[in-house]
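writing this on my phone so excuse typos. first protein, seq and then structure
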Amino acid sequence: MNHFGSVQVALLGFLVFSGWVDSPAAKSIFSFNGVGDTERRVDVRARGMGGAGRALADSQNFSSANPALLAAFSRAGLQSRFFVQRRSLNDGQRRHVVSDGDIGAFQIVLPIRNGTVLGAGLEPLTDLDFDLVSVVGATAVPYELRVNATGGIQALTFGVAHRWGSLMLGGNLNIISIGTIKETWTKDFSSSGTDGDSGSFLLDANNRQIPERLNSEDRYVRTHSGTQPALGAVYNPGSRWFFGAAFRAATTITQTRILRNFFAEIGFEEETRSTLDLKMPAGIGVGLAYRPGYRWLAALDYERAFWEKTESGRYNTTDLAGGILYRLGDPDSRSTRRRIELTAGAHYRSLYFKTDGDSQIGELGVSLGISLPFETRGAGSFRYVVEFGRRGDVTAHGASERFVIQTFSLSGWLD
């Protein structure tokens, strides 16, 4: 059996987007294309505002999309996140539903002296969650192909930022050393040589009869190593307006692939190792935030990532997000009224995945959120956000997907 190697990505793109797939199984088909579906690197409050907040430097923004946001923190804090999601995939004939969940980012900020703040975190860069089943082989010999891929790329992020009056500058370094992508490709031939035909068997070195067509399985484990730097700035000319910008540099990371090729009928397994250089794209984002007072916040963000330079056939991506926040309670820190926050927002983003045609996959979503403080002084809070959205189009891409994502977070502060 052939070792798929890098041909897997092209084959899978053909399967998914040309209509060859007979039954996409219970996971997202819009998450597998070499490195997985890119994560939006914003905190939970920003997710409740549609994903906006790149410019909102108000000492509560844990988003790593703009490293300069660290400079706004005046006290140490941390935030952890968890999410669950439900996907409903429609291939034009039937629907497939699945639910899954995972731990999101963990981040900590630590002011070290006036104006200078350090940050560290562990967060996903990409996510992968894919199943596919086809009952039609790509050759004259029919077989059933089953593909499963899970995991993603994660990074340890270390950042530093400093504030000079109205200007905040910062940078961070993503150390990619944790994320693992696991793939299983199984071929089950409809005929394994048991019909008694003399030509249906081969002889091994010990003159034992073995099937001519072996049911087999390729198991890939892909690990990654490398770094990606980012720079950011926030300018706050007055008490109401914030302007932000961030740049993420293009980089190349090393992917180590371990292939275990297993032939089920004869119990034979071999392992090969190889390395591949993966290009990660440059990206630039800008943001605008407006804070007229204690009650209201509004934010608008735009980001562009240049995936076309990483591999032929990929698309550059756009992410546009906007949202608002309304705060209940009393601005007086001595008040016993709880400061509850309500958020709402919407976003549109395009995906970089190759498609069989000229139609790029798009995603549209809306979000709602609420934050509840642990106690009136604001030493910590619990935040919940729910997002509803859709990606893909049955006519253009062979399938569409509706999703509901629920995100939970805990934040804590040290005076």
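second protein below, same order as before
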Amino acid sequence: MVLPPLALALEVFGWSGYAAAQLRRMTRPIPRLLAAYGVWLGTSALLTLDVAAVAGASVGADAAGRHPPARRWHLGAAMLGANTGSLLLPFSNLTNLVLVGATGIGFASYVAASAAPQFAAAIAVGAMLVWRAHRSGDLPAADDVPGEALAPARVAGLVAAAGAGGAIAFGLLGLDMALPFAAASGLLTAGVVAAGRARPRDVVRSLPIGALLLVAAAAALYGPLSSWAEALPHPGGGASGLAEALVVGGTAAALVNNLPAAALGAVWLGHVSPSVVVAYLVGTNVVAVATPHGSAATMLVRAGAHRQGVHLPAAEHVRDAWRYAVVGGLAAIAALALTRG
């Protein structure tokens, strides 16, 4: 509820334009694409994948310039970065919060288990992105020189970063991680409304009605999910258990969506080790990118691309995205198997 208004406020204050301007200072196309991917990894980890996905559509289009194929590559980088970077912290993705809350894992224990698979998945997906983009030849150099960044954009970015830092501190102290984000979102949202840059109804319209409906649907399905979960063999703590959790989480997310998949995991996993929870989340966060409806971030980027005049066909997404899902999922699960306690 608080993060979409935060994304709206960042957009109104010009943060997207600021980010795009910095990226377009890099005239070499492949480094610019890789830098954009890194921005969305970091934004997703610290400000959640929803903020990364909302901002990624407009920044991706601006950073790519006027070349249509380059726009598609940058929007793809935003989609991949938002999804792949959402594993690191408990608040990076709503799916993480659902599983962490249901299984009773502490903040530090979760991060200790998620760090290695997060970096492995990020590197593997980034390498695949760069390799495929280089082979395509669809990335020209920047076609103009960006202007100077506005001070409000930098200030808004610092406020949002402070909210993320506060959420990390609250998590380590065992407090409610939503409160610092709510404070940052409230401050920035009040600022854009008071300045006349946005109307209250714009803030209301920014709320993710589709995602909220998915949450409600997952809650309504809690009973049937319990029955289905009982039919699944409970994963052990070994390598086979990690693989089982990955396959179940990834399959459920790719077929339906990662929010109902998280609800299934909350019922199925119970009190398991942090490594098994992270393995399941690799499926719901990384493997979920294989389908257009697998995660909220993918749907948000696709919707934003449509508003930017860039069409991303569903069939084309399925044809290409499975490569990233497989590479990222395998890299993450291998790192998790090697580093689990």
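Residues 136 and 316 are 15 Å apart (CA to CA). thats all i got for now
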